[in-house]
Amino acid sequence: MSVDTFAPLIGQKQAVELLTQAVRQNRVAPAYMFVGPDGVGRSLAARCFIELLFFDPQRDFNTLHNRVRQGNHPSLLWVEPTYQYQGQRLTAAEAAEKGVKRKAPPVIRLEQIRGITEFLGRPPLEAPRNVVVLEQAETMAEGAANALLKTLEEPGQATLILIAPTPEAVLPTLVSRCQRIPFYRLDVAAVAQVLTQTGNQEILQHPAVLNLAAGSPGSAIASYQQLQTISPELLQQVTKAPTTYRSALELAKKIDKDLDTEAQLWLVDYLQQSYWQQTHQSSIINELEKARKYLLTYAQPRLVWECTLMALCKISRG
Q1: Domains of the chain (ranges plus CATH)?
Q2: How far is CA 25 from CA 53, 166, 182, 246, 261, in A?
Q3: What is the pLDDT of residues 197-227, one digit of tens each?
Q4: Residue 195: pLDDT above 80?
Q5: At the top level of its lineage, which domain of life is listed (predicted)?
Q6: Are 162 and 33 in contact (CB under 8 A)?
Q7: Are 135 and 163 in contact (CB under 8 A)?
Q8: Which of these, 93, 248, 250, 275, has the minimum number of CB atoms within 10 Å of its CB?
């Protein structure tokens, strides 16, 4: 084909080669697993690959490109983890738009897998095959994963793409039915290129955010956006260890009041980076790591921060 659909994807030469060769040789697998860190181009690669699969020289490519990018192509189903809120399933973007305070991370639900089965029960329209993409496939509970397994065994005229950080994060029986496509962290120059091309070059002026992203442009963008939601006053307070137990308790109360759970988890990462640069004390990093584990087990956030900040206060006193 004359159109290079993978042109926007930077720094993932191996993935591009594997996917383009599959199409050229007419050996497209029924299921793929795109594995690698968040924010390095896995979702973009999926969209590029779909454009390649759906490409028809008799039709306008720009129209195809826009429909795939907007997710409104009739032969494409894009599945994201959701929150359950007042009888509705909301994606992370929809929950943020509605101002929903999120207590637990979103997950791919059994009802969504049933929706995939229903979608694949229809023949493809305007494309040679149906394609289903599952973002953050690692968030599937066992029941949802087992339901998906039946679909993977008999996908019909379709290709499924599971996006996950590692094969180990997904049920082994699912992994065994997918062809793995590896994605890697980008070098400094490639990260700068992506941020500049996407209009996010201001992030290059924030080394703490870039260090936190560790070769992931998408993570850098997400971290910078998260940074903008936290008041400068709160950020200044938390990047210094409390000097008294009372100030630690007051700060914990403020964090719990101002930030939802996802923002608190991001703050833990940011503080680990910040404190390590300031002090190189592993004891502080360990306390913050414990805070992350407790937050992920849905412990009461205010209590988690009270214990963590009081521990930091004790460490700073020597």
Answers
A1: 13-184 (3.40.50.300), 189-316 (no CATH)
A2: 12, 27, 20, 67, 46
A3: 999 999 999 888 999 999 999 999 999 999 9
A4: yes
A5: Bacteria
A6: yes
A7: yes
A8: 93
